[in-house]
Amino acid sequence: MKSWSNNLQININVLVFLLALVTILFGFEIKIPAIFNISIAIFIIFIISRYFYFWGLLPRSIFFMIGGLLLILGGVFLERQRRKTVKQMKE
To answer: Cys staple from 58: which of 33, 63, 73, 75, with CB 3.0 to 4.6 Å?
Structure first.
């Protein structure tokens, strides 16, 4: 019973991740900044929720140091890319 639950969790996580990526690409293709921005927000919420999901799997101090650094760097990169993309859509 435990492996069925784990497989379901993995499948749902993969599905949400792929759905977020598809909506990002969809918003980019049709050049509507609102859809693009909302899909980026959904993707960020997904990543942050996974960050807290793995709380018990690693020692907390290392987890927060590495995870926080990755989230900050990823956030900076995504925000720069989002601004460039929205600017291109408006042109």
So the answer is: 63
Residue 59 DSSP SS3: coil
Q: Are 32 and 89 in contact (CB under 8 A)?
A: yes
Question: Phi, psi at residue 31, to the nearest 5°?
Answer: 60, 45
The CA-based angle 16-20-22, given to 5 degrees, is 115
Exposed, middle or buried, 31 (CB in 10 Å: 0-12/13-18/19+)?
A: middle
Residue bearing tokens 């599905």: 15
> Distance (Å, rounded) from C-alpha 64 to C-alpha 59?
9
Is 78:21 a contact under the CB 8 Å cutoff? no
pLDDT in tens, 50-81: 777 666 666 667 777 787 788 888 888 888 88
